[in-house]
Amino acid sequence: MPRSAPNPAPPPGRRRPRTPAGRARAAAEVLAEAYPGSEVDLCELDHRDAFELLVATILSAQSTDERVNLTTPELFRRWPDAEALAGADPEELEQVIHSTGFYRQKAKSLLGMAQRLVEHHGGQVPHPIEDLVALPGVGRKTANVIRSVALDEPGLPVDTHVGRLAIRLGLTEEIDPVKVELELNRMVPPRERGLLSLRLILHGRRVCTARRPACPECPLGWFCPSFGIADMPSSPHKPKKVTR
Fold first, then answer.
1. Does 167 lie in the same domain as 146?
2. How many other CB atoms sit within 10 Å of the CB of residue 36?
């Protein structure tokens, strides 16, 4: 594809990385400066514990973080823990979460998730990814969000932003989220995986957007293989309807 501009020069003392692993390391370092903070600081879903983050992440499917953050205070006021949510009236729950979209399926997932937590995990959110993905409404991406942000475990969630930026930065050619996750895991130390994912998400929302990436303002531009490419395609990664 034709470029509208060449890559900027590398910062003083830096060399342009030539391999996917090198670009992954450079991206992690540069984004850490652009978006400082811990996993909890960088996560834009309001929560106080792993249970609240699990609920919020299920609600965030096909919705915005802002909308979810407007919804969860009332939800947690009525049903503050797994035991309370497991006994919620389905119609009342649907009414509370209606504005997040797909409210019937989400209510079903929340009830099933809470009931399974109570029946199999003493009402607590489990750490193993195998146990997390067995919860209704929870896919691998959601499980990795919970592990990395709330449970202090390694996890690299791959959403549409992470998948898009991973391709644009030349970190992978895969489009399947699980394959992207496993490929990036080989390039990133376990303790840094969640942070890289969160920073890629923020960068994808604010700078490297799907339709109009702001290449001139991008701090990754000096090594990004897609810098300045005209008519840059949008991400091939498509969000799932509800399960995350």
1. no
2. 10
